[in-house]
Structure to design on (622 residues):
C-alpha cells in the first residue's frame, strides 16, 4: 500500500476517541516471511498442512509453560478500561484495535478448546473455532499491535497485552506463517551480527568516515574504535546508528562523551546490534541467541563494562532480561551497572563536571521529548524509581535551553507509541504507521502551538526512523526528530576544540 | 512479479527489489525508475553509480551520510545534501535509490 493513500487522521486532542469504523483495517497485513527467512530461525518455511492442530498444541504449550499468559487469557473481565488507550485504535477507529478486542481474537479460541464452558457452550461465552479466517485475522491484527504496553498501564488486572501479541506471533511462526520484516532481520543478526547486514569491513569504513567528519568539524581527533581488545567499555548500539539519520549524529555524540570522559571503549563487529527482534516475535530462543553474541563479544574483547546506546526495546531486553538470557556477567566490573545505559553514563559525567557544555549551541531548537515505550514502561535508569523519565530530561536540560513537556497524559509511563514499534517499522505497514502516530503528532502540535516547539528528541532507533518518515505527513520537516546525544554532540566543546566565532562560552565568561 | 526490459523478464520481490542482483542493467534501472515515477537525470545516475560502486566493495548500501558526502565531493554541496537527495528520490535515497540501483533493500530500524 502506498503511503500516499493514507488519510491522515485529524484529532482534536491527542486522546480524542474516534467514531468506530468497523473493518477499517481488515486485511491490513505485512508481507509474509519467505521460506529462507523462516528456516534461519528454525520455523517451517510455509504454512504447514496440519496448522490447526499445531497452533492449538503451541497455544497449550505456551499456557502451560508461561502461567502469566494463561492468567491473562482467563482473567479479563471486559471492563473496558483499555479500549481507548491504544494509539492504533485512536488513529484507525477499527474496534478490533481496541486492546481488549484484539486480545479476544486469541482468547476466544483459547476458550473454545481449553475451558469447560467454551468446550460445551461456546455460544454462551463467545468462544469460537479456529478457522482459516481466524488465522488470517490473527496475522492481520497481531501485526497492528506494537507491544508498547500503554493499555496494560490502565488494566486493573495488570494484563500484559503485549504478551498476548507475542504469543500469537510465536504460534504463527511455529506453523510457518511468520512476518517477513522481523524474521528476515533476526536471520541477519544470527548470520552477520546486525539488523542491517553490515559486515566488518563496511562498519570499519563507516566509523573511519565519522572520525574524519568529527575532526573536520572540531579540529579534534575523536576515535570510534572497533574490535579493540582490552578496552574498558563495550558499546552495544542499534545498527541504525551506523546508517540512518538522525541516529548517526547520536553515535557521534556517544563518541564525544567517551572521549571527554577519558575512558577506553570499543564497538564490536561481532555484536554490532543492540536491537533484539526476538522480543517482538515472542521467541525466547531467538532472543537468547541474539543476546549471547553480546556476551561472547564482551568476553573475547576482555571488557569490564557494557553500555547500551539509544535503542528502546534493546534497553528493555538489556535491563530486564540480559542476565537471564546470557548471564552471569561475573567477568565484568561489578562496581558499575550491568548493563549501563549511555544516558546514565553521560548524566554521571555531566554531574562530575567532566563535559564542557554550551547549551546555547542548541538555541535554534525548541524541544520536546518523546518517552520511548520500552524504556518508559519496561525498564529503569539510575538507582531510583522513575530514573528512566528523569535522566533523559536531565541530560536534555543540561544541553538545551528551551525544553517543554507534552500533555502529561501522553508522556512518562503514559507515553504513546511512535506508531512503528514491535516489528511494524516496515513500508508495507506505512498506512498503519501514519495513522498510529496521530495521537503523538497531536500532542506535539499542541506544544508547537503553545510554546513554539520545533523539534522532538527520542532515544530509540525505531522511534527516530518512524518519526522521520511520518512527521512530514503532519507538517514537520523530516529532521525535526533528534537523538538526545545529537543535542549533546552539538553542545559539547571538546578539549582543544577550535570554537571559532561562535564560542558562546567565552561570551558567557566575559559577561560574568 | 517481474520487470520486462529489452524482451527479458527480471524477477522482483513484493516491493520491487530485483531478486537476482546480476540481472541489473542500465535499461532495467530506467524501467524500475519509471514504475517509481522517478525521471532519471545525471544527478540520479551519480547516486545510482555511487551506490553500485560502494556495494561492490562493501556488500551493502552506504549510510545516507556517506552517500551525501560522496555526492557533495563529486557534484558540490548544493546537490550533495539531505534535502536534495529526497527531492531526487522522494521515498528516500537509501531505499528508493537502492531499488533502482538493483541492490537489496536496507533492513532494520532504518
Amino acid at each position: 500500500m502506498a503511503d500516499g493513500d493514507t488519510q491522515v487522521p485529524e484529532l482534536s486532542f491527542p486522546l480524542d476517541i474516534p467514531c468506530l469504523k468497523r473493518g477499517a483495517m481488515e486485511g491490513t497485513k505485512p508481507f509474509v516471511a519467505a521460506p529462507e527467512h523462516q528456516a534461519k530461525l528454525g520455523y517451517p518455511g510455509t504454512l504447514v498442512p496440519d496448522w490447526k492442530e499445531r497452533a492449538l498444541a503451541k497455544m497449550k504449550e505456551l499456557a502451560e509453560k508461561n502461567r502469566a499468559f494463561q492468567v491473562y487469557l482467563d482473567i479479563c473481565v471486559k471492563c473496558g478500561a483499555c479500549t481507548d488507550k491504544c494509539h492504533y485504535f485512536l488513529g484507525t477507529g477499527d474496534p478490533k484495535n481496541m486492546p481488549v478486542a484484539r486480545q479476544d481474537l486469541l482468547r476466544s479460541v483459547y476458550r473454545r478448546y481449553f475451558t469447560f464452558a467454551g468446550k460445551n457452550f461456546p455460544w454462551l461465552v463467545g468462544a469460537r473455532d479456529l478457522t482459516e479466517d481466524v488465522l488470517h485475522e490473527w496475522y492481520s491484527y497481531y501485526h497492528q499491535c506494537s507491544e508498547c504496553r500503554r493499555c496494560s498501564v490502565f488494566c486493573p488486572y495488570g494484563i500484559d497485552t503485549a504478551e498476548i501479541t507475542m504469543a500469537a506471533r510465536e504460534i504463527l511462526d511455529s506453523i510457518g506463517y511468520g512476518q517477513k520484516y522481523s524474521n528476515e532481520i533476526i536471520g541477519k543478526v544470527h548470520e552477520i551480527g546486525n539488523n542491517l547486514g553490515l559486515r566488518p569491513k563496511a562498519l570499519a569504513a563507516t566509523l573511519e568516515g565519522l572520525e574524519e567528519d568529527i575532526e573536520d568539524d572540531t579540529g579534534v581527533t575523536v576515535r570510534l574504535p572497533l574490535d579493540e581488545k582490552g578496552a574498558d567499555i563495550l558499546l552495544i548500539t542499534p545498527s541504525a546508528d551506523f546508517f540512518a539519520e538522525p541516529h548517526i549524529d547520536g553515535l557521534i555524540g556517544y563518541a564525544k562523551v567517551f572521549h571527554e570522559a577519558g575512558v577506553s571503549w570499543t564497538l564490536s563487529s561481532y555484536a554490532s546490534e543492540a536491537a533484539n527482534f526476538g522480543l517482538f516475535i515472542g521467541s525466547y530462543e531467538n532472543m537468547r541467541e541474539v543476546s549471547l553474541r553480546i556476551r561472547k563479544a564482551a568476553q573475547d574483547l576482555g571488557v569490564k563494562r557494557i553500555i547500551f546506546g539509544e535503542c528502546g526495546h534493546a534497553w528493555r531486553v538489556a535491563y530486564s532480561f540480559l542476565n537471564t538470557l546470557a548471564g552471569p556477567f561475573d567477568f565484568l566490573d561489578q562496581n558499575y551497572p550491568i548493563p549501563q545505559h549511555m544516558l546514565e553514563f553521560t548524566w554521571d559525567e555531566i554531574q562530575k563536571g567532566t563535559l564542557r557544555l554550551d547549551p546555547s549551541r542548541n538555541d535554534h531548537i525548541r524541544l520536546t521529548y518523546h518517552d520511548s515505550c520500552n524504556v518508559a514502561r519496561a525498564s529503569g535508569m539510575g538507582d531510583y524509581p522513575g530514573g528512566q523519565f528523569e535522566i533523559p530530561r536531565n541530560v536534555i536540560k543540561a544541553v538545551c535551553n528551551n525544553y517543554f513537556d507534552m500533555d502529561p497524559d501522553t508522556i512518562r509511563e503514559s507515553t504513546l507509541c511512535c506508531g512503528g514499534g514491535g516489528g511494524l517499522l516496515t513500508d508495507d505497514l506505512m498506512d498503519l504507521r501514519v495513522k498510529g502516530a496521530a495521537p503523538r503528532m497531536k500532542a506535539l502540535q499542541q506544544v508547537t502551538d503553545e510554546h513554539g516547539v520545533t523539534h522532538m528528541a527520542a532515544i530509540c532507533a525505531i522511534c527516530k526512523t518512524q518519526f522521520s518518515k511520518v512527521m512530514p505527513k503532519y507538517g514537520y520537516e523530516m529532521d525535526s526528530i533528534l537523538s538526545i546525544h545529537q543535542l549533546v554532540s552539538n553542545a559539547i566543546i571538546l578539549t582543544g576544540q577550535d570554537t571559532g566565532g561562535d564560542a558562546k562560552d567565552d561570551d558567557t565568561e566575559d559577561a560574568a | 512479479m517481474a520487470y520486462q526490459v529489452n524482451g527479458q523478464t527480471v524477477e522482483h520481490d513484493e516491493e520491487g527489489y530485483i531478486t537476482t542482483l546480476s540481472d541489473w542493467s542500465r535499461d532495467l534501472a530506467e524501467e524500475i525508475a519509471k514504475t517509481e515515477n522517478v525521471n532519471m537525470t545525471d544527478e540520479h545516475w551519480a547516486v545510482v553509480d555511487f551506490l553500485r560502486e560502494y556495494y561492490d566493495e562493501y556488500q551493502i548500501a552506504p549510510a545516507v551520510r556517506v552517500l551525501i558526502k560522496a555526492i557533495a565531493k563529486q557534484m558540490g554541496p548544493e546537490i550533495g545534501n539531505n534535502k536534495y537527495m529526497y527531492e531526487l528520490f522522494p521515498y528516500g535515497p537509501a531505499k528508493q535509490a537502492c531499488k533502482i540501483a538493483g541492490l537489496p533493500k536496507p533492513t532494520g530500524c532504518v
User: Anything to note?
Assistant: The domain at 2-100 of chain B is CATH 1.10.10.370 (Arc Repressor Mutant, subunit A). The longest helix of chain B spans residues 42-58.
